[in-house]
Specification:
The complex is a heterodimer of chains A (about 400) and B (about 300).
Chain A (H helix, E strand, L loop, with lengths): L1 H11 L2 H22 L12 E6 L4 H13 L1 E2 L6 H10 L4 E5 L3 H11 L7 E4 L5 H22 L4 H13 L16 H25 L8 H8 L4 H30 L1 H4 L4 H28 L3 H18 L11 H8 L2 H14 L5 H34 L1
Parallel strand pairs in A: 1-2, 1-3
Antiparallel strand pairs in A: 3-4
Helix pairs in contact in A: 1-8, 1-10, 2-8, 2-10, 3-6, 3-7, 5-6, 6-7, 8-10, 8-12, 8-13, 8-15, 10-12, 12-15, 12-16, 15-16
Chain B lengths: L2 E12 L2 E12 L3 E5 L6 H8 L7 E6 L2 E2 L5 H4 L2 E4 L11 H9 L6 H15 L14 H13 L5 E5 L7 H16 L3 E5 L3 H7 L2 E6 L2 E6 L1 H7 L5 E5 L5 H8 L4 E7 L2 E6 L6 H10 L7 E4 L3 H9 L6
Parallel strand pairs in B: 3-8, 3-9, 6-7, 7-8
Antiparallel strand pairs in B: 1-2, 1-4, 4-5, 9-10, 11-13, 11-14, 12-13
Helix pairs in contact in B: 3-4, 3-5, 4-5
Chain lengths: ~400, ~300
């Protein structure tokens, strides 16, 4: 097993790659896990900062102004072109409503004569979605005023009071208890982010780390000239790739448990261990991908690009960056054809479970098996390419 | 002495290009054999075929008296290789490198430790054992390259241009080391572009060109193959064309030319024309400065046999 040890030793000497792809990715996962947190017992409503310039002064414009100021935290803005531009440029308010002169009369006239609603001027913050949401609320309130004026002959003051009354009927917001999960949400997030390192990190570590043993390198001639059978040498190199994948997986596992130990306190160790199984299979896929890149003779920037782009695509399809529920049917269909889909699916099952039942273990094992099939297919391609290049 | 290498009718083609053309080679046990030739003449191809790193189209290769095949790992374990390019691992230290390549041949770690120590002492790298290769100078790196190939004490050692880009001190150390390997019982196949090195250490030499042997023998035998004797060099003021013609007319002179303040006179083999040349110069009133005579070198043989034109 000399070649196995040599290849592993040479690859793991690339400490910069280890720090970058294992430690930093683990730290990133930990940060994201901390950001998500596990506390779901309370919530705090956020209020946008708002400003209203009422140039009309009618009852209807006053109602709109009251509505906006009541829904957010008011900010004083003088009614000058400079102040409005400054507010927009410096993002001084999340939402600025400008009610033009004559708006109230125009709204009544349009409703009664069947014309279109007059336009309100507004400025929405470019940061976050709170301004846009506020704008939707204001449009809805103005629409309500318009509809009441259109359907009745009531005076604007009456319409304003009806609208205010309707507005006061609010939906109660509270916190509901989420179902108990086998592992904390934060740890699930950490594991989702660890898939980046398990796939891309492993691949880069193999393709870059074992580069000096590749078939186009001078050392390769020395290895071939030695008295070690070719099949044994190739098998040991492939095994070394698996060993590197396992090392990255073990490092991520240990770091994850250490860093998330606070939230993992009450979790079933069996479930935590079970969650590692599909991740190990994914590390095998990363190892196979790295073996393929190594066999292709990819080097330097090409390896980093291939590793990172592969990881980005896979983690995206796995729902690390955007929830899988938000993806279109076409993206989901593509995701099903990748190993990450089955890994995340298995992790989600472990997350949702309360104990490690036989059924759960069987399901996770089946999905892990599927992931290993991907690894085997890529490894076979890598072995064929490595052999062909070595003999060329 | 029995042959340790016996190659018969070796043919190797790269597509349309004939790299080895019915190449024959016999090397006796315990000798340092020099393989000379211009770039692309087939030296490295021949070595790679003998090591079974390359397939070949035709021919027989016997090493240690037995047919050499790709799966003859028992024979491969008795061979050492020092490739033309430095083939070491930058990730490992000097000592780890030698140990790693020695371990390809020797499994026992205690035995290996002793062999690695010997190899490091042999190439004078014991003081650099804990350094990474990238911290070594070019000469030390070449020595490490050699240590990696010899640590397992091979019976047959292929050295492919081991002194390229090496300073004179390191080169001398390497050449002394190769002679010591021979003294310890190894057979060495040595390729180089440096004729003086080959002349210095090789008992027998083969000159290759276009994939085949054009001459083989001891350095003295090869020198006798060409129509060239000693070269007389005289430091003298520029002689006239008539004086040069009189020197050329001397019966044993094959060529005479003047350049850089030196009159160079090539003589026929076994002829001694020094006194005649000096007499002609004296008659013409020339006043010679330093005068010396150079015997023909392997370089002259090489240029005579392989031509003086530039190669690709």
């Amino acid at each position: 097993m000399h070649i196995f040890k040599l290849a592993g030793r040479v690859a793991l000497r690339h400490r910069g790659l280890l720090a970058l792809y294992v430690l930093m990715m683990a730290a990133f996962g930990f940060l994201m896990a901390s950001y998500v947190g596990d506390d779901t017992s309370s919530y705090q409503e956020t209020r946008p900062t708002v400003a209203v310039i009422d140039r009309d002064g009618s009852e209807l414009s006053g109602a709109l102004a009251d509505f906006v100021l009541g829904a957010g935290t008011p900010v004083e803005l003088p009614d000058t072109a400079y102040a409005l531009q400054d507010a927009a440029a410096k993002d001084l308010a999340t939402y600025v409503l400008v009610i033009p002169e004559g708006y109230g009369d125009a709204l009544v006239r349009a409703a009664r004569e069947g014309d279109a609603m007059p336009i309100l001027e507004r400025s929405v913050s470019f940061q976050g979605a709170q301004g846009s949401l506020m704008d939707e609320h204001v449009r809805a309130f103005a629409q309500r005023l318009f509809a009441l004026l259109e359907c009745t002959d009531a005076a604007p003051s009456e319409v304003v009071s009806w609208a205010a009354e309707a507005q006061s009927a609010r939906v109660e917001v509270g916190v509901t208890e989420s179902p108990t999960t086998g592992i904390p949400l934060g740890y699930l997030v950490f594991m989702q982010f660890s898939t980046y390192a398990l796939f891309g990190g492993t691949a880069v570590l193999i393709a870059c780390g074992m580069r000096s043993l590749a078939s186009d390198q001078p050392v390769h001639a020395r290895l071939r000239a030695a008295g070690i059978p070719e099949a044994s040498r190739e098998a040991q190199q492939a095994l070394a790739c698996l060993g590197i994948g396992a090392a990255v997986w073990a490092a991520m596992g240990v770091l994850g448990v250490l860093w998330c130990s606070g939230s993992l306190g009450g979790s079933d160790p069996m479930l935590i261990a079970l969650a590692q199984v599909p991740l190990l299979a994914l590390a095998c896929v990363g190892a196979a991908y790295g073996y393929l890149l190594w066999g292709l003779g990819a080097k330097g920037d090409a390896v980093h690009a291939a590793g990172n782009m592969g990881s980005m695509v896979l983690t995206f399809l796995g729902g690390t960056w955007v929830s899988q529920a938000s993806m279109g049917a076409a993206v989901t269909a593509v995701a099903r054809l990748t190993p990450i889909w089955w890994v995340i699916h298995a992790l989600s099952e472990v997350y949702a479970a309360t104990e490690a039942t036989g059924e759960l273990v069987a399901s996770v094992a089946a999905q892990t098996g599927l992931v290993l099939l991907f690894a085997a297919a890529i490894a076979v391609a890598g072995a064929a390419i490595a052999r062909a290049r070595a003999r060329a | 002495m029995s042959d340790i290498v016996n190659v018969r009718g070796l043919v190797k083609r790269y597509g349309e290009k004939l790299a080895l053309d019915h190449f024959d080679l016999r090397i006796a046990r315990g000798e340092i054999f020099g393989l000379l030739g211009p770039n692309g003449c087939g030296k490295t191809t021949a070595i790679n075929c003998m090591l079974q790193l390359l397939t070949y189209d035709r021919g027989d290769i016997e090493l240690f008296g037995e047919p050499m095949m790709p799966a003859r790992y028992d024979l491969k374990r008795r061979i050492g290789v020092v490739p033309q390019q430095v083939a070491v691992l930058d990730e490992l230290t000097v000592r780890e490198n030698v140990d790693a390549f020695c371990a390809l041949y020797v499994a026992d770690s205690r035995e290996r430790r002793r062999l690695v120590d010997d190899a490091l002492d042999f190439v004078g790298l014991a003081d650099h054992a804990r350094q990474r290769p990238r911290r070594l100078s070019g000469g030390l790196l070449r020595r490490l390259n050699i240590a990696c190939g010899i640590a397992h004490k091979p019976e047959l050692l292929f050295l492919d241009e081991p002194t390229v880009a090496v300073d004179p001190q390191s080169r001398n150390a390497i050449l002394d080391g190769i002679c010591r390997l021979r003294d310890e019982g190894a057979t060495v196949v040595y390729t180089s572009h440096y004729m003086e090195e080959v002349e210095q250490i090789c008992e027998r030499v083969m000159i290759m060109d276009a994939g085949r042997s054009v001459a083989e023998g001891t350095p003295d035998e090869l020198k006798r193959l060409i129509d060239l004797g000693e070269r007389i060099v005289v430091e003298v003021d520029a002689p006239g064309e008539s004086l040069l013609a009189r020197v050329r007319d001397l019966c044993c002179v094959t060529r005479a030319s003047y350049a850089d303040g030196e009159l160079r006179v090539d003589c026929a083999p076994a002829a001694h024309a020094l006194l005649d040349v000096l007499a002609v110069l004296e008659e013409a009133g020339a006043e010679p400065g330093r005068v010396w005579s150079e015997p023909p070198t392997l370089n002259d043989v090489f240029l005579e046999l392989c031509g003086r034109e530039l190669r690709d």
